[in-house]
């Protein structure tokens, strides 16, 4: 019983730290950026994307971004998203390394979708 409680507490702590990390890596001005016409890049796999996605988002999976980033315009604004927010951080950083100035992490696509719906 004691071991199970310790495991549950550890999992809860890890989850809380993950949510904190995720929230501190999401730009607080996303609503404003979305209203200015940012393009959403969903970096999940094609299969994940086909199971649900933000309307009008484009799908460039993390595994393809190194080859496909040239399809994007460096002068435009992009918001990355995925299923848990970690892949989107990686893609945001990769695009920044390749000269994109206006790239933001949108985190979890479902949460970003809520923000988008609030801006309408």
Write structural notes for this entry:
The protein has 120 residues and is an alpha/beta fold. It has a single domain (2-119), classed as Rhodanese-like domain (Oxidized Rhodanese, domain 1, 3-Layer(aba) Sandwich). 51% of the residues lie in helices and 14% in strands. The chain has six helices and four strands, in the order ααβαβαβαβα. It has helices spanning 2-24, 30-35, 46-50, 65-68, 86-97, 109-119, and strands at residues 39-42, 58-59, 78-82, 103-108. Strands 2-1-3-4 form a four-stranded parallel sheet. Helix 3 (46-50) links the parallel strand 1 (39-42) and strand 2 (58-59). It is globular and about 55 Å long. The termini are far apart.
- The domain count comes to 1
Looking at the overall shape, the CATH architecture is 3-Layer(aba) Sandwich
* DSSP summary, beta strand count: 4
Mean pLDDT: 89
CATH superfamily descriptor: Rhodanese-like domain
Write the layout of secondary structure elements.
Blueprint lengths: L1 H23 L5 H6 L3 E4 L3 H5 L7 E2 L5 H4 L9 E5 L3 H12 L5 E6 H11 L1
Parallel strand pairs: 1-2, 1-3, 3-4
Short recap of the structure:
Helices cover 51% and strands 14% of the residues. It contains six helices and four strands, in the order ααβαβαβαβα.
Distinctive features:
120 residues, alpha/beta, Oxidized Rhodanese, domain 1, 6 helices, 14% strand, Rhodanese-like domain-containing protein, Rhodanese-like_dom, GlpE_sulfurtransferase, Rhodanese-like_dom_sf
């Amino acid at each position: 019983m004691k071991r199970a409680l310790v495991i549950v507490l550890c999992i809860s702590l890890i989850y809380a730290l993950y949510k904190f990390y995720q929230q501190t890596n999401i730009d607080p001005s996303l609503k404003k950026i979305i209203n200015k016409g940012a393009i959403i890049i969903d970096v999940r796999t094609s299969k994940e994307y086909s199971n649900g996605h933000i309307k009008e988002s484009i799908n460039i999976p993390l595994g393809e971004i190194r080859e496909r980033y040239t399809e994007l315009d460096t002068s435009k604004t992009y918001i990355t998203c995925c299923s848990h927010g970690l892949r989107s951080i990686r893609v945001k950083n990769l695009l920044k390394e390749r000269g994109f100035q206006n790239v933001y992490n949108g985190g979890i696509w479902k949460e970003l979708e809520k923000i988008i719906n609030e801006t309408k």
